[in-house]
C-alpha cells in the first residue's frame, strides 16, 4: 500500500463553510485528513492568537468518518492546537480555505485563512492557503477542484524550503486560463468610514474601503493574474525583514 | 516658527498603558501629537480588523491638552479610523507602543503594536513600532527615552521608502550598549497547551509556549542584539512575496 500523507485542514470562515467542505473532499482523494476549524466565522482576524482566554476543542461529525474538531479560537489557534493536541503525527501538509473571498495583494496581511497557513509554515509544516474571489456562500467551487489538487500534489512531491508557503487565489470565472506564479501586488485600501448615529444619539462607524492597485500596469502581480482569469500562486514568507534596506539604515541610525 | 510635525500614536495595550504615556511624553517634545488607542488591551491581535461590528470612538482627556481618543476596535482599526476621521492632515509619522513585552523575531506576526505601525505604513505614513522587553506594568521606560527620540527624529529627517517601517525592541537592561540595525531572527514557539477540566468536567486549554531561536549562532539578528543589551532596529516590510523563490516555483507548477 502506498504512503498516505497526513493532511491538516483549517479555515477562517468556520467549520460549516461550503469552501471548507470542498477542500475536505479534494484532500480526501490525496491522503488522510484531519480538520480543526473555528466554531464561528473568523474573517479578517489577521494573525490574532488567544492568550487571555482558554480555548475549547469539540469533536464534530460534520464530515462523516473524517476526524474533525471545532475550536473556539482564531485560525492560528486552530493550527497550534491541532499540531500540539490533535494530530497523531506531523502532518505532511496543511491546507487552509477555501476562503469565501480574495486574499490577494495586501489582503494577505488581514487574512485569517492565510494566518492558519502561516502558522503551520512557522512550525515547519508545508502549507498552502486557497481562496476563491467570490464572497457568496453559494459560490461555485467546482472549476477549481482539479487545480487545487494539482497544486497540493506538486508541493507534496516538491516540498517548499523552510520559511515559504503558498498563497493561492482563484478568480470567479467560468473560463480559467491556467496558473500564474506571481508576486503580491502593491495595493492599499482607501478607507471611507460610514458615520451613523445610534438610537441614543451616539456616533458609530462602519468600516468600508476600496482596494487601490498601486501597480496597475504590471503584469507579474496577483491582481493582474486574477483580473485576467488566471489562478495566482504567490510564494509567501513570514520573515518581514527588508534586507535590501539594512545597509542604508545602518548609515542613518 | 519652525515646522511642527504631526505625530499619530497608537498601541495595543490600551489607552491607559504606562508605555503609551511615555511615548506621548517623548513625542510631545518633537511635534503635535494625536492619540487614537484601543479602549482595552488588544495584545496578540495580529493584523485583525473589525468588519462585522461597527466601531466606537470617544474623546479621552487622559493626556490633558493632547488630543486623544479611545477606540473600541483593534490596533489596526485605530489607525484606519485615525487617518480617515481624526487627523486634520496627514501625519508626518505614526509611532506605536511602547509595548509592554517584546515584538522581536516571529512575534512581529502576532503583534498588535506592529500591526498598528504596519497599517500606517501601508497608507504611506512613516511608521515605527517600539517595544520594551518587559511585560511588567511597572517596567522602567526611563533609559529608552533618548533612544526613542533619536530614532524618531532620524526617520523624520530621512523618511523610509514606501513599503518599509521600523520594528524597534529595547532590552530590559540598565546598561544599554547602543543600537543595532539587524534582521528578524528565525524562531518559532514550541507550544505546550495546558489541558484542564472545568467544574462541569469539560476540557479546556491554555496556550503556553517557549520561543526557540533557530539561529542562535548568528550575531546579526534581533534576538542576538537584545540578548547582548542592544536596542534592535529591524527594517520591516509588508510585501510578503518570497521573490527569490518565484523562478524555481514557475518550473514546478
CATH homologous superfamily of chain A, by name? Survival protein SurE-like phosphatase/nucleotidase
Q: Tell me the overall shape of chain A.
A: globular
- Quick one: biggest sheet of chain A? 9 strands, mixed
Strand segment count of chain A: 13
In what order do the strands lie side by side in the largest sheet of chain A? 3-4-2-1-5-6-7-13-8
Distance between the termini of chain A: 61 Å
Secondary structure category of chain A: alpha/beta
Write down the CATH class of chain A: Alpha Beta
Helix content of chain A: 25-40%
Strand proportion of chain A, as a percent range, falls in: 25-35%
- The helix/strand order of chain A is EHEEEHEHHEHEEEEEEHEH
CATH architecture title of chain A: 3-Layer(aba) Sandwich
In round numbers, the mean pLDDT of chain A is 95
Unreliable stretches covering 5 or more consecutive residues of chain A: none
Largest interface: A-B, 78 and 78 residues
What is the fold named in CATH at topology level of chain A? Answer: Stationary-phase Survival Protein Sure Homolog, Chain: A
Rounded to an integer in angstroms, the radius of gyration calculated over CA atoms of chain A is: 19 Å
**How would you classify the quaternary structure?**
homodimer
The figure for the number of domains of chain A is: 1
Describe the structure.
2 copies of one chain form a homodimer. Chain A has 253 residues and is an alpha/beta fold. The first copy, chain A, has one domain (6-183, 218-252): Stationary-phase Survival Protein Sure Homolog, Chain: A. Chain A has 7 helices and 13 strands. In chain A, strands 3-4-2-1-5-6-7-13-8 form a 9-stranded mixed sheet, sandwiched between helices. In chain A, strand 1, helix 1 and strand 2 (32-38) form a beta-alpha-beta unit. In chain A, helix 2 (75-86) runs parallel beside helix 4. The radius of gyration of chain A is 19 Å and the shape is globular. Chains A and B meet through helix 2, helix 3, helix 4, helix 5 and strand 9 of A and helix 2, helix 3, helix 4, helix 5 and strand 9 of B.
Amino acid at each position: 500500500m502506498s504512503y498516505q500523507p497526513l493532511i491538516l485542514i483549517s479555515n477562517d470562515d468556520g467549520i460549516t463553510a461550503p469552501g471548507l467542505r470542498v477542500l475536505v473532499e479534494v484532500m480526501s482523494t490525496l491522503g488522510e485528513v484531519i480538520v480543526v476549524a473555528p466554531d464561528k466565522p473568523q474573517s479578517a482576524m489577521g494573525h490574532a492568537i488567544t492568550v487571555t482566554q482558554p480555548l475549547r476543542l469539540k469533536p464534530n461529525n460534520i464530515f462523516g468518518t473524517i476526524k474533525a474538531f471545532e475550536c473556539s479560537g482564531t485560525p492560528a489557534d486552530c493550527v497550534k492546537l491541532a499540531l500540539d493536541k490533535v494530530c497523531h503525527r506531523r502532518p505532511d501538509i496543511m491546507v487552509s480555505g477555501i476562503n469565501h473571498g480574495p486574499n490577494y495583494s495586501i489582503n494577505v496581511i488581514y487574512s485569517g485563512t492565510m494566518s492558519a497557513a502561516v502558522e503551520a509554515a512557522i512550525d515547519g509544516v508545508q502549507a498552502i492557503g486557497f481562496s476563491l474571489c467570490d464572497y457568496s456562500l453559494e459560490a461555485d467551487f467546482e472549476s477549481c477542484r482539479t487545480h487545487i489538487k494539482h497544486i497540493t500534489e506538486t508541493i507534496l512531491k516538491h516540498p517548499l524550503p523552510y520559511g515559504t508557503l503558498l498563497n493561492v487565489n482563484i478568480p470567479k470565472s467560468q473560463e480559467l486560463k491556467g496558473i500564474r506564479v506571481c508576486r503580491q501586488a502593491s495595493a492599499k485600501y482607501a478607507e471611507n468610514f460610514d458615520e451613523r448615529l445610534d438610537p441614543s444619539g451616539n456616533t458609530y462607524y462602519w468600516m468600508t474601503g476600496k482596494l487601490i492597485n498601486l501597480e496597475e500596469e504590471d503584469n507579474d502581480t496577483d491582481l493582474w493574474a486574477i483580473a485576467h482569469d488566471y489562478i495566482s500562486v504567490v510564494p509567501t514568507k513570514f520573515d518581514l525583514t527588508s534586507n535590501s534596506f539594512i545597509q542604508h539604515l545602518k548609515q542613518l541610525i
